Amino acid sequence: MRPTLSLVVPTRHGWPAVEPLVTAMLPELRDVEGELVVVGLGNGPDPKPPAGVRAIPVSDDDMLRLRLRAVREARGSIVAIGEDHSLPARGWWKAVLRAHAEHPTSPAIVGCLVNDANQSASGRANFIAFAGPYIPPMPAVPNWRPPPLATLSLKREVLSALDDRPGSLDGLANRLFEEGQMVADDGIVIHHDQDLGVAGSIRNAYTVTRAAYGYSVDRLEPGRRRELVRWVVTHLPQMVWRMGRARQPPTPRRQAELAIVAAMATANAAGAVVGSIAGHGKAPERYE
């Protein structure tokens, strides 16, 4: 039988790093007859996962390739994209299935993220710079910024549009967003826990966009690349800055957070420009 729902988690870390996440999700996973697919796992020994979990060791540090491999390995009727530093809230599995049942013609459902790394300015800034508009309550999908992949669950049929290029998953998500084919459901909640420090957050902002834009270079004519660079320079920093200021409660270190967000916005633009011109380089292997 095909699983009802697959949660796929690409990771460079070994099994001990993801085992707590796996253990926390097992009861509900089994209750809904879903599956968890963990792909990557560094170069450690092959794990022996519990029933309902598939561990697929892959010797590859490219996070975009790992993510695409994970999606292709999924067998569920619905496929959700996870991260090794995120933990779905209690009831997540049933909430995803309910949302897709309520919207049978929608190819993608968008859930919410909650920041669990809120003890430092860098942890707060890192979160709001990419997920600011995707915190609950979220009655509708924000119409000015595509959702982070970690918020998405997709019906299997739409995945047929993917090709073998690692950036094709990002391309599919962006197309569905632009066409208005995503539906928001803020009953789907994921706890995000990532604090890379100030320097690490800025470095990762550069890395993420260089990887994403770099993998799209081979699909663009030179003239289209120049148009993309102009768009990046004029729009991307403003978009990130807007996310940094959107719907965020005041904190004692708000000015510090916004300063980090501004630096991340500049790094995002720089990564996108370099990726569009020179390709992805080593960025996908440093993507956090």
Distance between the termini: 34 Å
Q: Structural class of the secondary structure composition?
A: alpha/beta
According to CATH, the fold-level topology of the largest domain is Spore Coat Polysaccharide Biosynthesis Protein SpsA, Chain A
Radius of gyration: 18 Å
Domains, number: 2
Number of strands: 8
Provide a count of the helices: 9
Placed side by side, the strands forming the largest sheet appear as 3-2-1-4-7-6-8-5
Largest sheet: 8 strands, mixed
Helicity, as a percent range:
40-55%
What is the CATH level 1 assignment of the largest domain? Alpha Beta
Q: What is the CATH architecture term of the largest domain?
A: Alpha-Beta Complex
Q: Approximately what portion of the residues adopt beta-strand conformation? A: 15-25%
Q: Mean pLDDT across all residues, rounded?
A: 90
CATH homologous superfamily placement of the largest domain: Spore Coat Polysaccharide Biosynthesis Protein SpsA, Chain A
Question: What is the secondary structure topology, with strand pairs?
Answer:
Blueprint: E1 5-11, H1 15-31, E2 35-40, E3 53-57, H2 63-73, E4 78-81, E5 86-88, H3 92-102, E6 108-115, H4 121-131, E7 152-155, H5 168-178, E8 182-192, H6 197-214, H7 222-245, H8 254-278, H9 283-286
Parallel strand pairs: 1-2, 1-4, 2-3, 6-8
Antiparallel strand pairs: 4-7, 5-8, 6-7
Helix pairs in contact: 4-6, 4-7, 4-8, 6-8, 7-8
